[in-house]
Specification:
329 residues, mainly alpha
């Protein structure tokens, strides 16, 4: 006697309906979590873009001033204006006194001194060089960080790292074309800025969780302000009244840029925020061409594209796959 398959079909049909219902009407709690995470990532990326636009504009202000304000004076006033936001960067359980009471005083002082050199080098670089040319050297920072991490943090040398270094090096040679054009103190200053920024990043990676948030802020602003202040004493002279507005914009944009990138890091991981720094090239080209009439030729654009592609490459999934394979010594 043949049995009917109807009960089994009815059970299968019921399970299918349940699955379709779950697909069409997913768990509201899970949907809310996913939407919240997506909104946080979007907010973080947006804040990062705003932050880097502020930094690029700050550099354009330096170019606009054209050396009318001595580097140490501009660095001093910029850091002084940044200190206004000290209460906003204080972490939970931290006090303002921690700005000068770090847990790692030697590294705190070292970072502050490197930061000071970087600030002065940045002012000189963006005063002397076209913005695109200066940024082409600043964008070597990921390469410098990789090299310093290998030397000081004993990180592995990977195929991805070597590929990034090689492409960035080629891009830099194309932009600078040594032997075909004169290299100036501005190029040296931009290179020093890159080394200083990379060194600060490596120090932060080493002591990130061992130091107060506000102590990091003190090393980045208070100590450079003091060191720059000491350097301006022998020839102290206040800038002309007509220069105070761009000076104020310079300082305020540094403060706002640091504040927004700090908030951005709370919403999105570094692998999403890192590539956003290359958005500065859009501002550099815009300011350079339309405000300062900087000449930009095809080799410069091509070299800059190589540097940007190499810098963004390290954040791609393929680069992550290559990191698992260590190159032989």
């Amino acid at each position: 006697m043949q049995t009917s398959n109807w009960p089994r079909w009815g059970k299968t049909r019921g399970m299918t309906c349940i699955i379709l219902r779950r697909i069409s009407c997913p768990d509201p709690d899970k949907v809310n979590i996913v939407n919240s995470q997506t909104n946080d990532l979007s907010r973080g990326v947006t804040l990062a873009l705003v932050s880097f636009s502020l930094f690029a504009t700050k550099d354009a202000v330096v170019r606009f001033l054209g050396g009318q304000v001595p580097p140490f004076m501009l660095g001093f006033l910029g850091c002084l204006l940044c200190l206004v936001m000290a209460p906003l960067v204080r972490g939970r359980g931290e006090r303002l006194i921690h700005i000068i009471q770090p847990r790692r005083p030697k590294l705190w002082i070292l970072r502050g001194m490197i930061q000071t050199v970087g600030i002065i080098a940045g002012i000189i670089a963006f005063t002397e060089l076209p913005m695109v040319e200066a940024f082409s050297l600043v964008f070597l920072m990921p390469v410098m960080i990789s090299l310093m991490s290998i030397v000081f943090l004993n990180e592995k040398v990977t195929r991805s790292t070597w590929l990034t270094i090689f492409v960035c090096f080629v891009g830099t040679l194309i932009v600078l074309r040594p032997g075909m054009r004169e290299l100036t103190i501005g190029h040296l200053a931009a290179f020093v800025l890159t080394i200083c920024s990379s060194s600060v990043f490596v120090i932060l990676r080493h002591i990130k969780h061992d130091e107060h948030t506000i102590s990091h802020f003190g090393a980045a602003t208070l100590l450079p302000m003091v060191l720059c202040g000491i350097m301006i004493i022998p020839d102290f002279r206040l800038p002309d009244l007509s220069l105070w507005l761009p000076i104020a914009v310079y300082g305020v944009f540094i403060a706002l840029g640091n504040l927004t990138i700090m908030f951005a890091s709370r919403y999105a991981p570094a692998n999403l925020l890192g590539p956003m720094q290359y958005s500065q090239v859009v501002w550099a080209v815009g300011y350079g061409v339309f405000l300062f009439h900087d000449p930009i030729d095809a080799p410069t654009v091509f070299g800059l594209v190589l540097i940007i592609v190499a810098g963004v490459w390290k954040y791609t999934p393929l680069a992550g796959m290559l990191r698992t394979s260590r190159t032989p010594a």
